[in-house]
Amino acid sequence: MKNGLFGLLFCSAFAAQADSAHVFGTPTIVGGISPRIMATCLEGNRLYAGGGPDFYVFDVAEPLKPKLLGHVDGLAGVRQIAVRNGMAYVSAREAGLWIVDATDPAHPRVRSRFDCCELATGVDVAGDVVFLGQRQNGVEFIDVSDPDHPAHIAMRKTDESQSVKYRDGYVYSGDWGTGKLTVFDARDMRNIRQVAYEDLWGFGDGVWLKGKYLYAATGHHAKHRDLSTLPYKGVDSETLRLYGGAGRGAGCGHGLDVFDVSDPAHPKRVGRADYPPFYERGLDMWTPRTSANSDIVFCAATHNGLFAVDCSDPKSPKVLDRWTAPVEDHPEWPSCCIGSVAVGNGCVYAGGMGCGLVVIPAKGAAQETFDQGILPANASFREPYPTDEKEFWAWKPSKPGQARAVAVAGDVVYAACGDAGLHVLKVRPEGGFEKIGELAGRPRVFDVQIDGPRLYTAEGLDGFGFYELDGPAGFREIGRLPQIGPGNNVALCVWKADHDHLVLSSRNGGCRLYDISDLANPKDLFRFGTCPGWDKYMMDAPIGGGRYVAYNNAHKSIIWLDLKATPRPCISIVTKYNFISLSNGICRFSDDMALVMLNTGYALLSPNQGDPADRSKWTQKPLPGPQMHGIPRKDPNGTRVVKTCRIGRKVALYDFADPERPVFLKHWKVSGNPDVAAFCDGKVVIPCGHQGVLLQK
């Protein structure tokens, strides 16, 4: 079968050269479930597994013969699972945090979905607190004492949190691209603070603890070490060359770091095991798990396979065995993506994206009960998110929620506040906001756009709503899309390309362009882009006579859409050598120019501008003021440009009266996570997460 298992037991020459002991036996694929399993978690005799929209519960009283007990779907994109007492906490990237009640394992049911700050990746739970790793935005702390109404406690920044683990009052985060281990003192939710920040020898991800040792799984490129000490020369590929990474050490970050965390605030590096070099973008996460009765650490390393590492001598850990599941249509990959591993009695359970759930007999494997020790205190605490009253007026909804988007019409601001719904705010002549209405019956709204008398919303599980406005606060629904594309997804983002076209996204499957000239019958024209993450990457309005609109396909390309192509709109240009980061964006500057943020500078692009013929980079112009990334928006009635950086919690304001010599005007450090800003009568309006909606004074 394609993308399936071929040669289920495969011990590489590398493993044989490293004091190989055959740990892994003949595997068995668990039938009757999805072949795409990303997450596994074991509690008692229950094995929990998930991938895509699916969540499964198995009985593993007979460890080698899992018996399916229950299933629930609709979770969009399962990434990791943490379970305590039959309650499962599921990170699902763009779809946020799901709480699944599996206390009746034959009938698991979703209790709630929580609107987290960004992409929900790593997850752990202790007592009444969930710890949710969300890439560059850091770790979010969530009160789950009421599983039907989880509530935000606080957020702490990390470089790029991919996985988290809690023990004895401390949270350990594996940070991806910078290759770091970040440690927080989280004994008291009123005083969460970073206490350690240590180098990993590869990109960071999964972390696990046993006794006084922490095991950190790493991948991609070698970091923070002398490359001359590596036993490999690295790897080379077209992708690596395109992204500037080929050479010695490329792909050599795969392995396992061992730290002594007897003092959690001062981790000490002890040892390191290296895996064979490999590099593949996309599915790139790494997970370690320990065993109760041996010193073997089992490590899922996505396309590099599954490793058994002997850590009996933590100063010199050794790879004992390697299991892979080759992929027919990608022979250059050692394995299908092994996304996770759980250690059972006499076996391990591997979750594979293509090979499904696999039971592999394993010597030295024994299920252990993880002792979390001291539980965090004061889960009822809520971070206050203060506002500088000299600079801004602030408004917050009475129900907890994040201000995620604003749309401005005259002196009226429509504020999409996530789990708190959509609110209509009028800007007072003397300053500040007065609430004059809200969208009734739709408790969750994550994005909003306005076009004359029409309002468009992204409403999570309720899909996308189209409304006719009767005055500023009267809503009449005139159309709805319950979901877009195949499978289950969560409506999160809507952009107005022009009067007749909308771009809709659930973020986990790119974007889709719709023809809405007949709102009673919207037409899905085509899909474009890949997973766009959380930032908003579409231009706010077309240029070139209303014909071209650009999209930041983050870290990969700029995509131009031709809205007036015949017989129907199409993708006109996709760059290959010019692309921008996930924290930068594009906006309309004038009818014949787009403004794009390049690193900490900017460029002005002509309509439909692609790569230069010589494949060179676009010329980056310096931007005065603070050196920061961000997504720009220009005042449609003036020359000012505002740039917001969600990750850095920064906002900057410029005057672009002279496009070649912009003038820096203001810089604000805010307490919330600012999303794309707008202008109201020349003043900046910022949807600023848990800080609320801000209006410049």
Main pleated sheet: 4 strands, antiparallel
Task: Name the shape in a single word.
Answer: globular
CATH architecture name of the domain at 392-696: 7 Propeller
Strand neighbour order, sheet with most strands: 1-28-27-26
CATH topology of the domain at 392-696: Methylamine Dehydrogenase, Chain H
Q: Which percent range describes the beta-strand content?
A: 35-45%
Q: What's the level 1 CATH class of the domain at 392-696?
A: Mainly Beta
Q: Pick out the low-confidence regions.
A: 1-19
Number of helices: 2
Query: Structural class of the helix and strand makeup?
Result: mainly beta
Oligomer description? single chain
Mean pLDDT: 93
Rg from Cα: 25 Å
What is the fourth-level CATH superfamily of the domain at 392-696? Answer: YVTN repeat-like/Quinoprotein amine dehydrogenase
Q: Residue share in helices? A: under 10%
Number of strands: 54
Q: Tell me the span between the first and last alpha carbons.
A: 63 Å
From the structure above, extract its key features.
mainly beta; 4-stranded antiparallel β-sheet; 2 helices; 54 strands; globular; disordered N terminus
Describe the structure concisely.
By secondary structure, the protein is an all-beta fold.
Describe the structure.
The chain is mainly beta and 697 residues long. It has a domain at 392-696: 7 Propeller (Methylamine Dehydrogenase, Chain H), CATH 2.130.10.10. The strands form 14 sheets. The chain has a four-stranded antiparallel beta sheet with strand order 1-28-27-26, with no helix packed on it. A four-stranded antiparallel beta sheet has the order 2-3-4-5, with no helix packed on it. It has a four-stranded antiparallel beta sheet with strand order 6-7-8-9, with no helix packed on it. Strand 50 (650-655) and strand 51 (663-669) form a beta hairpin. The radius of gyration is 25 Å and the shape is globular. The N and C termini lie far apart (63 Å).
